[in-house]
Design a protein that fits this description.
The protein is α+β, with helices and mostly antiparallel strands. It folds into two domains: 228 residues, Jelly Rolls, CATH 2.60.120.10; 61 residues, no CATH class. It has eight helices and twelve strands. The protein is globular and about 50 Å long. Bound molecules: fe (ii) ion.
């Protein structure tokens, strides 16, 4: 077992506020800088996002792949101490050498879900490597996160999820509708802010859609996350996606999740069916493509991939 997720009622309940956990990954051979340099150079680049040589406070998460900055990737990973770089590998488990670590962490996550009766819908790893002083700007993510600090230290500021003064219904709809990842810091929100000092051996739980930002201290930082959804967070995503359509295309003021059981169920079922059909259409085959045309399921409303934060 690498993650110790026991002993926190907040984590057990996947609550709306964060908490610490502990882990045993700090000395893991695959997570040391030399191994990570090799990984960055060999891994497929479609899952790697980075910026280098950009003032950290001006970095926009999600724009990294289009505005990587002034340094090429190989230079950045070889000079993390002074390259002003921020690197993010989404799904490093596609690498055969990294896969066993995912399997191990997934086993910890499965055990956690079994113990607390959650139905896991998806999970993957995310590896962060960043220069001294790097900043991950204020944002939310579309899944729960267990982030383990491996090397260096950083400060995370976190605000509770599910507070519509901090994240308005319209912001969540635009986020899950894949329009923008920009999120304003609201006046007076300091009273809800909690600070987590992340050091090797410590991990932090970040709830689904909880606003957070991270600032590195004076060393290169390495962190590894396992990010995941449960049936409940998938349902919330689908309700916000439906509300985005209702508000922007039909001019409605949709009910927020939890206000109407039958509406929530209908919105969730619609997007579950939509996603399943999209999945089927991705399977090669004339009959399936024809079925897709017959059912009128066209392209998604926005392009896939990273969108602006
Ligand atoms: Fe995040």
């Amino acid at each position: 077992m690498q993650f110790d997720l026991s002993g926190s009622k907040v984590i057990d309940g996947l609550g709306n506020v964060g908490d610490f956990f502990s882990h045993r990954l700090a000395d893991h051979p695959l997570l040391q800088m030399d191994e990570i340099r090799k990984l960055v150079k060999r891994i497929p680049k479609n899952g790697l996002f980075y910026s280098a040589g950009i003032k950290p406070e001006s970095a926009i998460i999600g724009d990294w792949h289009t505005h990587p900055g002034k340094h090429p990737l190989d230079f950045a990973i070889d000079n993390m101490e002074n390259a002003d770089a921020y690197m993010y590998i989404l799904g490093p488990e596609v690498d055969p050498g990294f896969r066993p670590l995912y399997v191990e962490l997934k086993a910890d996550l499965d055990e956690f879900c079994r113990r607390n009766s959650y139905r896991l819908t998806d999970s993957r790893l995310a590896l962060f490597i960043s220069s001294p002083g790097a900043i991950a700007p204020h944002h939310i993510d579309e899944q729960h996160t267990f982030i383990a600090q491996i090397k260096g230290s950083k400060t995370m500021f976190q605000w509770p999820a599910g507070n519509h003064e901090l994240t308005t219904a319209q912001e969540l709809e635009a986020f899950f509708g894949k329009v923008t990842r920009k999120l304003a810091i609201k006046d007076g929100s300091d009273r809800w802010r909690k600070t987590y000092e992340m050091t090797p051996g410590r991990g932090v739980y970040i709830p689904f859609a909880a606003p957070h930002s991270v600032t590195n201290r004076n060393e290169v930082s390495i962190s590894l996350s396992i990010i995941f959804n449960t049936e409940q967070t998938r349902k919330l995503q689908n309700i916000y996606r439906a509300n985005h359509v209702l508000r922007t295309r039909f001019g409605r003021s949709p009910r927020v999740p939890g206000e109407s059981v039958w509406r929530d169920a209908m919105k969730n079922n619609y997007f579950r069916a939509y996603d399943y059909s999209r999945h089927l259409m991705g399977i090669p085959g004339r009959a399936v493509r024809k079925l897709g045309r017959m059912t009128g399921l066209g392209k998604p409303p926005v392009a896939a991939g990273h969108y602006r934060r």
